[in-house]
Design brief:
The protein is an all-alpha fold. Helices cover 75% and strands 0% of the residues.
Length: 234
């Protein structure tokens, strides 16, 4: 970077590497420096916004992402869709689901094959208990695009769970767990516990809740389920 600060690819690669190493302070510092050389650049703005998200600085992430929108080429619908979805994610973390859903709508209007945006939109609809039929359609579309994505499979399983279709929910959560193997995520294990409990297998449900709690020890709902060995709705 110091030898040739005019090469944007060096900046993007280095910022991404620091992000992958969970060194968000350094990634943010480099993002700020890079944007001095490339003001308003959409890719660098998105990297900075992603870093701010990792730091739970959601309001700032929205401001940076919006600035990046202005620099996106008129025919680059995919990038614009990604930035709009990033803003949607931030709004949901801020507890503003209506704003989040509005940005997901815009993201999918710009680029209907944005599978991650469709998945997140579907999942948060399920979390809010809103329009579960549409959530299922969005999630199914994501899985058709990326059928082996464990996150997408988990989302679909959770939507089916919210629709009380416990048998089919188990099929998809089992696929997600199989893909993740020994690296199963806390949310997936938590969902698996709920789904197995509703399928009449409380012993296996408890095992999944216990595994999830080890990964997410501050989760009060998981603590409650493990303590009482039963399911509780959020």
């Amino acid at each position: 970077i110091d030898a040739d600060p005019s090469d944007k690819s060096h900046w993007t690669s280095t910022i991404s590497l620091y992000g992958q190493a969970d060194n968000n302070d350094k990634a943010l510092q480099l993002s700020d420096r890079a944007l001095e050389y490339f003001p308003g650049d959409p890719v660098l703005s998105m990297l900075k916004a992603n870093t701010l998200q990792q730091m739970n600085r959601w309001d700032e992430a929205i401001v940076v992402a919006r600035k990046g929108l202005a620099g996106i080429a008129s025919d680059d619908n995919a990038t614009r869709s990604n930035v709009l979805a990033l803003i949607g994610d931030s709004y949901h973390q801020l507890g503003q689901p209506d704003s989040a859903f509005a940005y997901y709508e815009r993201a999918l209007t710009e680029y209907p094959d944005n599978f991650l945006a469709a998945n997140n939109f579907a999942y948060y609809l399920a979390v809010e208990g809103k329009d579960l039929d549409r959530a299922e359609r969005l999630s199914a579309m994501s899985m058709r695009g990326q059928p082996d994505d464990d996150t997408f499979l988990d989302t679909y399983a959770w939507i089916l769970f919210r629709k009380n279709d416990y048998v089919h929910a188990k099929e998809f959560i089992d696929k997600a767990l199989e893909i993740e193997g020994e690296n199963a995520q806390a949310d997936v294990l938590h969902h698996a516990g709920d789904i197995y409990y509703m399928n009449g297998d409380p012993e296996q449900a408890l095992k999944y809740w216990e595994q999830a709690l080890k990964l997410d020890p501050d989760n009060d709902l998981l603590k409650k389920k493990v303590k009482h060995k039963t399911h509780f709705f959020e």
